[in-house]
Amino acid sequence: xxxxxxxxxxxxxxxxxxxxxxxxxxxxxxxxxxxxxxxxxxxxxxxxxxxxxxxxxxxxxxxxxxxxxxxxxxxxxxxxxxxxxxxxxxxxxxxxxxxxxxxxxxxxxxxxxxxxxxxxxxxxxxxxxxxxxxxxxxxxxxxxxxxxxxxxxxxxxxxxxxxxxxxxxxxxxxxxxxxxxxxxxxxxxxxxxxxxxxxxxxxxxxxxxxxxxxxxxxxxxxxxxxxxxxxxxxxxxxxxxxxxxxxxxxxxxxxxxxxxxxxxxxxxxxxxxxxxxxxxxxxxxxxxxxxxxxxxxxxxxxxxxxxxxxxxxxxxxxxxxxxxxxxxxxxxxxxxxxxxxxxxxxxxxxxxxxxxxxxxxxxxxxxxxxxxxxxxxxxxxxxxxxxxxxxxxxxxxxxxxxxxxxxxxxxxxxxxxxxxxxxxxxxxxxxxxxxxxxxxxxxxxxxxxxxxxxxxxxxxxxxxxxxxxxxxxxxxxxxxx
Length: 481
Ligand code: ADP
Ligand code: GLC
Hints:
By secondary structure, the protein is of the alpha/beta class. The protein has 20 helices and 18 strands. The strands form three sheets. Strands 3-4-5-2-1-6-7-11-12 form a nine-stranded mixed sheet, with helices on both faces. A six-stranded parallel sheet has the order 15-14-13-16-17-18, sandwiched between helices.
């Protein structure tokens, strides 16, 4: 089965979050199970510089030609197409926002153009192959693709995956003329969303199947709280909506051979994990102390992730014998909050405010407990990385966090499932209380080790998710025959 996978980021070419991990790994897992996936991405300036790729086709757009370049994902046989057009050139650093965190002014035009080019290729309007059986698109950036496919009279089944419903790509209605979107899509049952043009809604309306990245989130988004205005539509499409949990790359995220950490370890050599703790403390300027409970957090600093809840809990947290290490970047006020707190508690809080893949690995290896008080979490990857690193995740049980972390009650520890901590409410007080419980377990060495073992033995590999996507693809290609 030939599948065209369209996304706006993919590891290691360009990454701002978990979407890149999915787009960089799921296609490889699908190929291992017999699919033939081509990944198509926008050719951002930096990507083209770092990954030179020969031109193999030209595609006419409403603004000159786009060049379709072909390469392979590093260290893999996964074919990657890059859509090279001037509109992507200036997107240096982050594809969606500038250095100040403001959306690029032409995001609508850029991602519409990307989808339009892909639709034209599939319609056979270029020298590139177009014999695909199915298109799999991801998040709002590719939401217009199913509409453009209809516009180009391409009759292919489309799967649309929601990675985060909070980002919808909603723009002024006039944009639709600039992006050559046919007026027949402009109605309430189409791309129109309260008088505006919604890329996400287009994906949800025109795709044959909708998936999201955990079974719990698939349920949550049908409620007003998590549905961000689209719950009604999602309820109407409930029979086509399902949740498939993401996997993780167990080659890259493997404490036994991770080259980015200070000391490798496995379940049998778990004592060596402490060397990573010492290295992390050293790097972040914290007192080196093997005994103290080291809390960690890595993530985009946005409302979703609950960094504010962590900051508001610091006073209470630091009454306990714990340290906290943070690696993240994002909203200026949250970064500022971390800076101020570091100045106030330099012996307790260490932080790196930036994007740093190596430090993220070291933190996963060095921390004892990983904090994820997310307000919502479609899937979340760090809680899975944490578990395979024997770092117990302390999570708000929502979305994928609920589906991948089992609360370590004594019963669940004993039966081999307990692998982390579930908050009983999302507030600073609840966070302090749960860290207190974690500290209690930490002092009970036998049960702590047992819980680490439960976590480290879990199988989060992509093969399982890939199998579920393949069976979904198969239902569609059959019904398309
Ligand atoms: P989201 O996609 O909502 O950001 P996920 O948990 O799915 O959340 O994925 C986040 C990914 O981005 C993880 O691989 C995480 O390690 C990585 N990440 C986020 N912020 C940073 C950072 N500042 N430095 C390094 N890696 C980061
Ligand atoms: C989104 C979500 C995150 C998920 C990731 C990959 O960015 O916020 O929870 O893990 O996509 O699907």
